[in-house]
Amino acid sequence: MTVTTSSPDDISAEAMRALKIIESMPGFAWSADADGQFTYVSPSTLAYLGNGRDDLNTAEEDEFGWRRVVHPEDYERVAARWRHCLKTGDDYDAEHRLRRADGVYRWFRNSGRASFDSDGCITQWYGTTIDIDDQKKAEDGLRESEGRLQEIIDAVPVHIWSWTPTGEMAYVSKRNMEFLGITENEFGDFTKVVQELIHPDDAPEVHRHAADCIARGEVFVMRYRRRTKGGAYCWTEGRCEPVRDQHGNIVHWYGVSINIDDQMRAEEELRNSKRQLEQMIDALPVNVLSFSPDMVLTYTSKRYQKKIGPAISFPRNFEDVIRDVAHPEDFAVVCQRALDGFAAGTPFVNRFRRRERDGNYRWIEARAQPLRNAEGVILQWYIASVDIDEEMRAQEALRESERILRQLVETLPALIYCSAPDGKPIYRSRQLSDYLGFGLDGVDEEGRPRLDSTLDAIIHPDDLAAVQERYGHSLATGKPYAMKHRLRRYDGEYLWVETRAAPMRDADGGIVQWNGVCMDIDGEVRARHELQLAQERLSRASQAAGLAELSASIAHEVNQPLAAIVANSHACHRWLSAEPANIERAKITAERIIRDANAAADVVSRIRALFRQSSDTRTVLPFKDVILETRKLLADEALRRGVLIDIDIQEGLAPVAMDRVQIQQVLINLLRNGMEAMGSVAGEKALLVRGLADGGVVRVEVRDSGPDEELPAKIFEPFFTTKEQGMGMGLAICRSIVESHGGRLWAEKNVPNGATFIFTLPAGVKG
Amino acid sequence: MRKERPVVAIVDDDPRLLESVEDLLESAGYAPRRFSSAEALLMNGLSNLDVLITDVGMPGMNGFELRDHVQNARPELPVFLITGRHEIADQDRAAGIRGFFRKPFDAQALLVAVGEALNDPEMEDDSET
After folding, report:
1. How far off is chain B from A672, nearest CA to CA, in Å?
2. How far apart (Å, rounded) are the C-alpha atoms in residues A633 and B114?
3. How many inter-chain contacts (A to B, CB under 8 Å) are there?
4. Tens digit of each residue's pLDDT (9 = 90 or more) over A154-177
5. Distance from CA of B102 to the nearest CA of A (A)
6. Most buried residue, A119, A339, A704, B62, by CB count within 10 Å?
7. Measuring CA to CA, how many Å separate A281 from each of A149, A266, A687?
8. In CATH, what number does A617-762 get?
């Protein structure tokens, strides 16, 4: 202390007062010279020590005299400091124990300050010695309890750490450091600690979040991976909360790190397995939904979300979900079936149109299955849906095409039926049923096979045998069936129909069923019959009339004028022979003779014209057409006679230049001859017409299965006939026609029976 | 003159033949009556006829039917059939019939047959001359 006075008295008085102040303070005061020799020690100090001042200054073996009162454990430290300060003039501060007069040591804080002269040399030291024993003991107690706390902290199986209010790492528990393999020196820099110890993927977020929490004073909670001593990362949950003073200011942050690695790994595994499951579900071409037992949607697969629409917000009940996606026409049925299934706890299946993201509906099949626990209680419903749109559309198209086909069949102006491979009817079109007056039912009476009774009931008795034979033949051989016969109408009237049937086969060629069609040809047949009658009357131009009739007609045509001429010439002779001769009448009669003779000549020339070789009536025609047409003309007659006419024309047979009417006459004549020849034959009557190329000519054969007889040599001569009717002109005229075409006609006997008439015509175009 | 000329009916659907036979009969001194069909003849009645000559093939009633009909009504009336279709003449029903002629028939033979049927000596004589 520095006391400034103006007079010695004043000084003395002031000094005295100062001394008084010093010595009445609750502490010890002292002063010492530059060498450290006490120049003043307050009386209270001496009283405490129970020593005189001199004792304190009495050095002993180069040690300070106060060595005796300072605790031996403290002396070296304090003495060293004091020596240092004496030398340098630095402030002296030391805490040490002083022995009281009764031998008890108490803690004191000793502080000395040097005062210097103008040269900077120490002139004096002034100091205080203050009892800090109570304080020191409190500190020791605190330190001890802190140590104990530390032990506890170090012992608990959590990692504890603390931040300063600004977020500096202030403390890391020992266990924590051991775990991390770091020392205290390494965690000073928080940023660095984070960078080094937190997994690189987590570090930025941890750093950001921690800084955020510190700035806001909010609790920090985070899960992240910490690197352990071994270098492996370990999942940790870090929690840190601020501690505040009474003003609410943060004094410190205390944190713990809890090892949650096992938990995290378990969760991770769970997540992985769930993800795998989901991936699997998403990879499968099905949509998966799940519903809780109370029908609330709990899960939708990604595929579903992607396909069906924007993410569906949970929870939603089943009805809402279905209402959303099902086609309005399907909704009611789908919903009802599902609700029934949910209620009964039984699996159910729904097929319906579901709206997709793009607004289009596609057919799906959804199958629902409950998952039950061991007690059988339903835990969850799973619904898997599969797109069946293409199948459904294909089915629909199939149904549509079936409908169209059926309509087609039902509206075709024909009577259509199907029968089993054995001939039993299995389908009749409406038109056929209407025609017959009954469908498939109601014909099977008296236990007879349906086909038999059906045929009996609907085929004209005259045609029945032929139909049965032909139909049976087709069923047995699989050959197409074609037949003209009369079919009974519901009102009992028989109309002519042409029935054609062909087998429908499966991939292996087996007959699945027969499909047949009956065409109403009644009008046609009747018209043709009429025509035929007319043609027969008009024998000269008739295609269908036989040459026998034709020749008879020719004879009649010639005989008529001839008879008139004979009668007239006789009459004329009589008029002239009369007395007197009646010239007028004779003249009239002679004129009539001329007229009728001309008429006869006309007839002859007309007949000649009919068989004349005339190039302008010849056309180049395929033989097949001519033969088929001929068969058509003779179809009714063949049916009546029970003769089958088979036609076998070689493919690609060259066309022939011919007079169609004449060649048809030849064919009609040969066919009719063949049919007549078989008139007395029992069993199958078959006429085979073959057309084939034979060198440069086309060869046509008409083969019958008539009786086993030698052919008469004169068969082609005019007026030769074996028949009771006819003039025997037919074959002669045929030969003349064929020869006029540059061909030949002859007959051969068949083995074992029957005859074949063969004619040839030059192939190709010829004038 | 002497007594009335015998009436000979001729039925045929061919007008040329009808015409020529009428001429022939007229030249032989008969009174011919022409009918184009059996029905036409029957409508006229048979009572004043002495001989009937008919064609066989005709539309409507044919010659055979007409003959049968006439034989019922007037059994004594001579009937001659002529036909242009020889196959008809060959048939059983034509066999054994006396007055059957095939066109073209022998005009002289027809007149002889008609004369014989009428048993008219004058005519016969005339015809023989």
Report:
1. 20
2. 48
3. 87
4. 777 778 888 888 878 788 877 778
5. 9
6. A704
7. 55, 22, 75
8. 3.30.565.10
Contact of B24 with chain A, judged by CB distance below 8 Å, is answered with yes
Of chain A, the percentage scoring pLDDT greater than 90 comes to 14
Q: Which fold has domain A8-137?
A: Beta-Lactamase (3.30.450)
At residue A301, φ and ψ (nearest 5 deg) are -70, 155
Percent of chain A, pLDDT > 70?
A: 88
Please report, in angstroms and rounded to a whole number, the separation of the first and last CA atoms in chain B.
Answer: 20
A552: nearest CB among B19, B20, B87: B87
Q: Residues B32, B33, B39, CA angle at the centre, nearest 5°?
A: 150
Q: To the nearest whole angstrom, how far is the Cα of A579 from the nearest Cα of chain B? A: 12
pTM: 0.33
Q: Which DSSP symbol is given to A699? A: E
How does pLDDT run across A450-461, given as a tens digit for each residue?
A: 555 577 778 888
Tokens (6 digits) for A578: 């009369």
Dihedral angle computed from the Cα positions of residues A645, A650, A651 and A652, in that order, rounded to the nearest 10 degrees: -120
| A25 SS3 class | coil
Right CATH for A284-393 from 3.30.450.20, 3.30.565.10, 1.10.3210.10, 3.40.190.10: 3.30.450.20
Residue among A556, A564, A596 minimizing CB distance to B85 = A556
Task: Pick the residue of B25, B87, B100, B101 with the most A CBs within 10 A to test the interface with A by mutation.
Answer: B87
Which of these CATH numbers, 3.40.1500.20, 3.40.640.10, 3.30.750.24, 3.30.450.20, describes A156-266? 3.30.450.20
> What digits encode the pLDDT tens for the residues A484-515?
898 888 888 888 888 999 999 988 888 999 99
List, in sequence order, every residue forming a beta bridge with A291; answer none if it has no partner.
A297, A381
Q: Which residue has the higher pLDDT, A383 or A680?
A: A383
Per-residue pLDDT at A606 exceeds 90: no
pLDDT of amino acid A612:
57
